[in-house]
Design goal:
Layout: H1 3-19, H2 37-40, H3 60-72, H4 78-85, H5 89-101, H6 117-123, H7 138-141, H8 159-171, H9 181-186, H10 191-203
Helix pairs in contact: 3-4, 3-5, 6-10, 8-10
The structure holds heme C (2 copies).
Length: 232
């Protein structure tokens, strides 16, 4: 057993001893996050009405990369360029670890599950087999839009925020790693596609409450993602 692992076990045991399960695994909050809470919420769940995204539970490497991009201007946003300017690499890493460790509160899935063009783009993609093919968003962001690793969670982010990101890729004001995956995808989406798919994801729960119906509409074919292009 490595020292690090042993340390983590000890920390977990301590968390159980002092507070049941609630505090397990939440990284220490660096002082800088006090200045983030006004927009991203004390619980890191953002402010959908204002278009401030939720950060809680996103992958630490993804968050760190975004803070780096805001600081260096490869992701343009006046508010976040200003916020990121003063953060050095060590602080960015601590902030990212903190938000990544925050739990996402369970939220009931809306009823009925959204369907239509947005669901189609999300689960099956568009124009499969043509040069204009848009891969199913779910093939990277997960069937319920909850994200996986550096593919961030889309479920529950506001439609205004999500569509601003797709438009930013179309305009070239948001860069990204790796492989410009999203730039290529965003440029194949029409304004109507963007409206539909962002409304779809905004309506999904960021952490479906136990017993909630599955995110995918029940009539999606089981191989809905078969037409998805491989990442790359
Ligand atoms: C004045 C409001 C405001 C404050 C304060 C603020 N943010 Fe933001 N944040 C935003 C907005 C608006 C966006 C969306 C930017 C965009 O559209 O690209 C954002 C986006 C982000 C993202 C990208 C999320 C994603 O899913 O890609 C991260 C990470 C982030 N903020 C971290 C922070 C941190 C860390 C702090 C504190 C040091 C902070 N923010 C303070 C408004 C704010
Ligand atoms: C091949 C994999 C892949 C597919 C397919 C894909 N994405 Fe992404 N997506 C990514 C990656 C990687 C990122 C993170 C980009 C970065 O590092 O800035 C991302 C980020 C995003 C973001 C930004 C989220 C945030 O918090 O700022 C949005 C919005 C998004 N994708 C929407 C979509 C939509 C809509 C589709 C389907 C039309 C889609 N994606 C399909 C890989 C993918």
């Amino acid at each position: 057993m490595t020292n690090r692992f042993r340390h983590r076990l000890a920390a977990t045991a301590f968390a159980i001893a002092i507070g049941g399960t609630a505090g397990i695994g939440i990284a220490a909050a660096p002082p800088e996050v006090a200045s983030c809470a006004g927009c991203h919420g004390a619980n890191g769940m953002g402010n959908p009405a204002a278009g401030f995204p939720a950060l809680a539970g996103l992958h630490a490497g993804y968050l760190e990369q975004q803070l780096y991009a805001f600081k260096h201007g490869t992701r343009a946003n006046a508010m976040m360029n200003a916020m990121g300017a003063s953060l050095n690499a060590a602080t960015r890493a601590k902030i990212a670890a903190y938000y990544a460790s925050l739990p996402v509160p369970p939220v009931a899935e809306p009823d009925p599950a959204p369907s239509g063009l947005g669901a189609q783009i999300a689960m099956q993609g568009l124009n499969t087999g043509t040069p204009h093919a848009v891969p199913a968003c779910a093939s990277c962001h997960g069937d319920a839009g909850l994200g996986q690793g550096r593919f961030p969670r889309l479920a529950g982010q506001s439609a205004a925020y999500l569509s601003a990101q797709l438009v930013a890729w179309q305009k070239g004001t948001r860069g990204e790693t790796p492989l410009h995956l999203m730039r290529h995808i965003a440029r194949k989406l029409s304004p109507a596609d963007i409206t539909a798919v962002t409304a779809y994801y905004a309506a999904l729960s960021p952490n479906p409450a136990p017993g909630a119906p599955a995110a995918a509409s029940p009539d999606s074919p089981p191989n809905a993602k078969a037409g998805a292009k491989k990442p790359g």
